[in-house]
Design a protein that fits this description.
The protein is an alpha+beta fold and 203 residues long. The chain contains three helices and ten strands. It has one domain: BirA Bifunctional Protein, domain 2 (2-Layer Sandwich), CATH 3.30.930. Helix 2 crosses helix 3. The chain is globular. The N and C termini lie far apart (36 Å).
């Protein structure tokens, strides 16, 4: 789905959830190649704008989206879930990490460094997922992306999330073949932990 189309639909749904006229939504999809700019994007980090560049309105800096990358847009009403944005972001990170673990990939979040990280084939730390959210009237927007099998060369047009000292990897580069439907089902299996964390529950 074109990024601008998804963004418009997401903004409309966000407003509808806020007014109580629509249900919450977790939406998994894929975009054609696009660079998105968060509210903290720095022009010098757009190195080669070979694809369309769209201002996303979310937090963070530049991010790439494209085929082979699974996007999860998470539109939830935090008025019903404690009004704790920090807890929401941590729960989102933990959800992605738990889902990766189901495919045998150890992932983690790092304080002060946006995204989900793992060890690449060479043993070095590399980014396998991105996190970027916006909260409007206590309803969340945007969410996460995970690299299943994108063209990793496309990331070279930007400094991903403003972090240039680490590389980018994917499940495919780690030798793990996962199709989008498998990833989505895995997300469903680990979703109870995500919602439990939002409610302040502990395992």
């Amino acid at each position: 789905m074109p990024y601008r189309t998804a963004l418009a639909a997401m903004e409309q749904r966000n407003a509808a959830i806020a007014t109580g006229t629509s249900r919450e939504l977790i939406w998994c999809l894929e975009h054609p190649p696009v660079y998105t700019a968060g509210t903290s994007a720095v022009a010098s980090e757009l190195l080669d704008p070979r694809f369309e560049v769209v201002e996303a309105g979310r937090g963070g800096r530049y991010t790439y989206h494209g085929p082979g990358q699974r996007i999860g847009y998470v539109l939830l009403d935090l008025r019903k879930r404690g009004k704790d944005v920090r807890r929401f972001v941590h729960a989102l990170e933990d959800w992605v990490v738990a889902t990766l673990a189901g495919f045998g990939v150890q992932g983690w979040a790092v304080d002060g460094r946006v995204g989900i990280w793992t060890h690449d084939r060479d043993g070095r730390e590399a980014k396998i997922g991105a996190i970027g959210v916006r909260v409007r009237r206590w309803v969340t927007m945007h969410g996460f992306s995970v690299n299943l099998d994108p063209d990793l060369a496309h990331f070279s047009g930007i400094v991903p999330c403003g972090i240039d000292e680490f590389g980018v990897t994917s499940l495919a580069q780690l030798g793990i073949d996962v199709v989008p439907q498998e990833w989505d089902k895995a997300l469903q299996r680990t979703a109870p932990g995500f919602f439990g964390a939002l409610e302040g529950e502990t395992a």
